[in-house]
Amino acid sequence: xxxxxxxxxxxxxxxxxxxxxxxxxxxxxxxxxxxxxxxxxxxxxxxxxxxxxxxxxxxxxxxxxxxxxxxxxxxxxxxxxxxxxxxxxxxxxxxxxxxxxxxxxxxxxxxxxxxxxxxxxxxxxxxxxxxxxxxxxxxxxxxxxxxxxxxxxxxxxxxxxxxxxxxxxxxxxxxxxxxxxxxxxxxxxxxxxxxxxxxxxxxxxxxxxxxxxxxxxxxxxxxxxxxxxxxxxxxxxxxxxxxxxxxxxxxxxxxxxxxxxxxxxxxxxxxxxxxxxxxxxxxxxxxxxxxxxxxxxxxxxxxxxxxxxxxxxxxxx
Length: 317
What we know:
Strand content: under 5%
Largest sheet: 3 strands, antiparallel
Structural class: mainly alpha
């Protein structure tokens, strides 16, 4: 349709066909003042010129992108630039995408575990926590468990530096690991066990009896116990005696002590306090969450040495 000034104008029906929007939608935008009619016919019908059509195209694009109508109006009125709106909306979409990814991971984890309704609710709540909230759960556990104790500096630093960082697009096993870790550090029995370990270590630090090469002792224990298990040597058998004797001598040398019954009893107590499958599981879960190499399961090997040493101590050496 040609206006009196020769410009092309469109009825609301023509504009609907041109843009693909419904007449009702265009009328809504028109009544809201977002895309007002250029003029009206003598009969009161709305007419829109090319500028109004271009304005409607921009409105449709912004609305398709999820921009609210009030912000669209501000863009059209040039109160804010399209670039500003796009940047703000992109940030908002990032949050939505992260939330959707978490929900997807939780659903996949639920499907894998066959969780109960109560477990599903817990998993959903834990997965929705922010990075800071997740870190606070772990730091609160560390602060409470180690409160008032002077631990070995390297151990304390390692604990505080290793915090969960669940990625924006976690795999179901990472969600599973985070849920398990949160449950673990909230378990009073586990907290009490870790507190006992910390108190034992603090006492040794105070006495200055923590050997510098403690990690090397752990590696030696793993190697010897692993070989014994591979050879089918039972902890209580005579064949275990030379393995125990070699390991005890290594520990006695590291502590600068004599390999006698008193030392063996003390070493057995150290190992019993410090060997807990859940403590090892703590580090494995952190590794899964953060995408680190997962430490191997070594507790059964140390348990072999504990059982073999207990047998020797019970036998008087």
